[in-house]
Write a structure and sequence with these properties.
Structural class: alpha/beta
Strand order of the largest sheet: 1-3-2-4-5-6-7
Keywords: Hydrolase
CATH superfamily: Alpha/Beta hydrolase fold, catalytic domain
Radius of gyration: 17 Å
Number of helices: 9
Low-confidence stretches: none
Family: Belongs to the thioesterase family.
Protein name: Thioesterase
Shape: globular
Strand content: 5-15%
Helix content: 25-40%
CATH topology: Rossmann fold
Number of strands: 7
Number of domains: 1
Pfam families: Thioesterase
Order of helices and strands: HEEHEHEHEHHHEHEH
GO molecular function: hydrolase activity
CATH class: Alpha Beta
Mean pLDDT: 91
Length: about 250
């Protein structure tokens, strides 16, 4: 498949597999980048081609202004991915990426695209209440929250030069995630698989189960030992889960 110039800005194919039987589009967490899913791409290729989304304001897009509105991100990505999601396609999103994957899936299904599965990880259902305002706090409080969740190497965040590079995108992502709220309308018809850590301070199993309300299809909840980034310790099991779903 030939990738469009616009998609080349937003999507990273670490292991191109034009003959893959299915494609998995991966949406990173707040402060995350496409490279987080490089190991997933390596593990699934060449049977499944991974398309990792790269948000503005990080890594090779660090000179671009980050987007702090999840609905704006969803609109842009729906346009980009409309031409990249032909055939058998599934979405995987972690934390903020789960909400974004859901919103993009809604938009694409309205255009006639039917996903194989929507995997939503480490995120409460869209209609579950939330009142976090971490994005409004100072830099130290924001970084303390990131360290608490364990998604980033603490030594990296202690480097002042690196902090100055990552803070704008991190704050923007937190704002997008925290101000996101469910807008009533058509949901999705594809199956939703919600994944959560049993010690996640950001989402309970009950909140993750609320994703069942957002699909007219099947729903499954998978719980793993661990916190918000439980998936770092259970990557092999999650990759097997994804591969099994996409193989079917």
């Amino acid at each position: 498949m030939t990738i469009s110039l616009e998609a080349a800005e937003w999507v990273r194919r670490f292991h191109p597999a034009p003959s893959a039987s299915a494609r998995l589009v991966c949406f990173p967490h707040a402060g995350g980048s496409a490279s987080y899913f490089h190991p997933v791409s390596a593990a699934l290729a060449p049977a499944v081609e991974v398309l990792a989304v790269q948000y503005p304001g990080r890594q090779d897009r660090y000179t671009e202004a980050p987007v702090d509105d999840l609905f704006v991100l969803a609109d842009r990505l729906a346009e980009v991915l409309a031409l990249e999601t032909t055939g058998r396609v599934a979405f995987f999103g972690h934390s903020m990426g789960a909400s974004l994957a859901f919103e993009v899936a809604r938009r694409l299904e309205a255009r006639g695209t039917k996903l194989l599965t929507l995997f939503v990880s480490g995120r409460r259902g869209p209609s579950a209440p939330g009142d976090e305002r971490i994005h409004e706090k100072d830099d130290e409080a924001l970084l303390a929250e990131v360290k608490r969740l364990g998604g980033t190497d603490t030594a990296v965040l202690d480097d002042e030069d690196i902090r100055s590079l990552v803070l704008p995108a991190l704050r923007s992502d937190y704002k997008a995630a925290e101000l996101y709220h469910y807008r009533p309308g058509p949901d999705v018809g594809c199956p939703i698989v919600a994944l959560v850590g049993d010690q996640d301070p950001k989402v309970t199993e009950a909140e993750a189960r609320q994703w069942a309300e957002r699909t007219s299809g099947e729903f499954e909840l998978k719980t793993y030992p661990g916190g918000h980034f439980y998936l770092n310790d259970h990557a092999a099991a999650i990759i097997r889960l994804i591969a099994g779903r996409l193989a079917g």
